[in-house]
Specification:
Elements (H helix, E strand, L loop, with lengths): L1 H5 L3 H15 L4 H5 L8 H13 L2 H57 L9 H15 L1 H20 L1 H13 L3 H22 L4 H9 L5 H15 L5 H6 L2
Helix pairs in contact: 4-5, 5-6, 5-9, 6-7, 7-8, 8-9, 9-10, 10-11
Amino acid sequence: DVLEQQTDSARLKEIIRDISSEVEGGATLSRSMAKYPAVFSNLAVGLVRAGEVGGVLDETLDRLAGFLEKDMELRRKVKSSMTYPVLVMIVAVGIVTFLVTFILPKFIDLFKELGLKDDSFPLPTLILMRTSQFMTQKWYLAVGIVVGLTIAINRIKATKTGKRYYDMVKLRVPVFGSLNHKIAIARFARTLSTLMASGVPILSAMETVAGTVDNDIIADAILLSRASIREGDTIADPLAASK
């Protein structure tokens, strides 16, 4: 009731009111929270369930709050570290686009006035000239290609196989691949630590962690490790085998 009164979000007020009503009706808190997967993640529900079973719900919720705060801090650090390279890339693309669409056409007109033909230029120059002509004369096609590629990538990501290849590329691209890998491993370690400290069994914890790393390649490695643990192996060996 106190949380409902303190919350500014009308949507969250409604959800808390419903959870309160469910608990008053005899349902567990974890089961009531599980009705709203868009608000409470599997991790949150799993931790609350473990806290209920172990009789340490207050400690579990405190650990969950600490986990979410650290995760938010990690996201903030990543965003701040990526701000500079992203800005540099945007400026670089803007400058190149300006040169290709405004400056280069003037040189092309000059070459035509001098009577130079296409076979007078080396291949890289010819490609640049053709690109400039395409972007100035058929810019709508360039916009269409960009929009089409964006839609196609999103459609591919929506499929299971496409998501897997996309996640593989995310881990292998220069600079950002290493960053994505470290983020996923940090989330894996922190989530598993929080779950185990809250009394969640290792197999259930590994299954929950696989769903929180947001990368199918790493999630598969975690699930393979979970299968090995179930057969009596250690945690380290199957993780080491995944490279």
